[in-house]
Amino acid sequence: MNQALVTKFPVTDKTRHALEVTLRGCEELIPKEDWLQKLAKSEATGVPLRIKLGLDPTAPDIHIGHTVVLNKMRQLQDLGHQVIFLIGDFTSLIGDPSGRNSTRPPLTPEQIKLNAETYYKQASLVLDPSKTEIRYNSEWSLPLGSMGMIQLAAKYTVARMMERNDFHDRFKAGTPISVHEFLYPLMQGYDSVALKSDLELGGTDQKFNLLMGRHLQAEYGQEPQCILTMPLLEGLDGVDKMSKSKNNYIGIAEEPNTMFAKVLSISDVLMWRWFTLLSFKSMAEIEALKKEVEGGRNPKDAKVMLAKEITARFHSAAAADAAEQDFINRSKGGVPDDIPEVSLTGAPLGIGALLKAAGLAPSTTEAGRLVDGGGVRVDSSVVSDKGLKLEAGTYIVQVGKRKFAKVTLA
Predict the structure, then answer these.
(1) β partners of residue 84
(2) What interactions and quaternary structure are annotated (predicted)?
């Protein structure tokens, strides 16, 4: 137990509940005993804890896998604690070496500013903006100056720095490591000192940087923060982590109908993990729902609840209801109310060329494959002939379960 936490505060049922909320779905809480005492101290004194999440705005768009950590922030925010959304505009100029086998190129100040604005706008769909403190680490990093940077660098050894896996592996492989990369974990750790953070959240790949914050806070005479790491969310396939490159993701800016349908496409097993990491329902509610399903209730009912909750979060309750109705219409072979309208010329036009021109297939080759697979319908009739030519007229063209277009051909 840290010396700063020697004064014992009573652990109440409310404190235990707060610990339970903290631990929900988390990978690791270090050290749990210190966090329990921080919670007890906060309850006894009425002073909210300061909870920090640092993000380097390296890309402007996020998918729901990125919101796992934001969900945890929201849960702690709802307990009454102070959430700090820290934008690493200074550290982005260095480039995070975490998990890298080469130097990460730094971003320009213009890229950072643009990405940061987009990030926060998207994060505000999960966090309560009125209770969120937004900070930029250039506030205290730039005033440090060369003298302060040297003094900060003196508080950590090269030997300890080289214990970090990515540095160790790159050094062993003879891959270059620039001296400035050592500054990244130091500066991220110094953020915790500047913000007097009680808890820092991050992905499992950030553990070294998070522990650096604890070390530096002790060096500066502060009560060290606890650290909480969250797991990576499995994507739609239930195998690999959610990733755009794996095409198993749901972007938080996707259309409501697409978002809803994608959630419904996950497996019944994966659904419960998504409930734990993405839903705002309590674990008691989720367990009760799980027991109902085990007792014979259709698991699809639970999945619809999850799909509606996620869709409503990033759009609205009305959009979620409409998406559910759209999904029902499609599943019955019906046509959604709102489909794109496309005007084409060149009648009579081959089905492959029409699908490509209407944006329903990326190429005529792929269009042919879709026809062979029975995935193409024109006016509700399955197309089986790849050589089909359509005369002038208006048609409802469907590819798979989700893609529709009203095509007027002249």
Answers:
(1) 52, 133
(2) Homodimer.
Does residue 173 share a domain with residue 294? no
Contact 249, 65 (CB under 8 A): yes
118 and 206 housed in the same domain: yes
* Of 309, 331, 353, the domain-final residue: 331
- Residue 94, domain extent: 3-230
Are 179 and 153 in contact by the 8 Å Cβ rule? The answer is no
Residue 281 is part of a domain; what is its CATH number? 1.10.240
CA nearest to 266, candidates 255, 258, 274: 274
Residue 167 structure tokens: 């540095």
Alpha-carbon span 287 to 384, nearest angstrom: 47
The answer, yes or no, to whether the previous bond of 48 is cis (omega within 30 of 0) is no
> Residues 74-110, buried b or exposed e (16+ Cβ, 10 A)?
bbbbebebbbbbbbbbbbbbbbbbbebeebbebbeee
66: number of Cβ within 10 Å: 22
pLDDT tens digits for range 144-190? 888 888 888 888 777 777 777 777 788 888 888 777 778 888 888 99
Beta-strand relationship, 82-87 and 403-409: unpaired
pTM of the model as a whole: 0.72
